[in-house]
Amino acid sequence: MLRIQQAPLPRQLQVKKMKMKMKVTSKRVVLESNIFLCAGRFDDALSPEYQNDRDLAVMITFINKHESVLSTLKSIDLENSTVYFDNTCKAIFGRKKTVKPHRWVGQIIRLEFKYSNCILKK
Q1: What is the residue extent of each domain of the chain?
Q2: Most buried of 41, 61, 72, 89 (most Cβ within 10 A)?
């Protein structure tokens, strides 16, 4: 059986081939690093289920801080961001108003306690 050996590539061709490989690799590294760096920004625009989870955590933290609310808790209204306690008391939560450009997608301002119609005891 006759074996034919491939002639080695000329030096210029080898260098050119290596440069092309490096270009592709460097573009890939840049692309991957950009995706990695932007991953934190994509977390800011949360889907509703995760935003509800964060909002609920804020309300539960508030309830745990105020023993009078915890001991007389009636319900938590996530849709209206309200905690009902005692007979007629409620704690209202909301977000700070911010001006955003048209079609802006990004971080939703964190939910915070606004006011209560009853005196809160810690």
Answers
A1: 13-42, 48-116
A2: 89
Q: How far is CA 111 from CA 10, 15, 24, 88, 95, in A?
A: 66, 58, 45, 23, 5
Do residues 83 and 76 make contact, with C-beta atoms less than 8 angstroms apart?
A: yes
Give the DSSP per-residue string, 22-54.
HHHHHHHHHHHHHHHHHHHHHTTS--HHHHHHH
d(CA 67, CA 120): 9
- 48-96: per-residue pLDDT in tens? 678 888 999 999 999 999 998 999 999 999 999 999 999 899 999 999 8
Rounded to two decimals, the pTM is 0.58
Residue type (1 letter), 73: L
Cβ–Cβ under 8 Å, residues 109 and 58: no
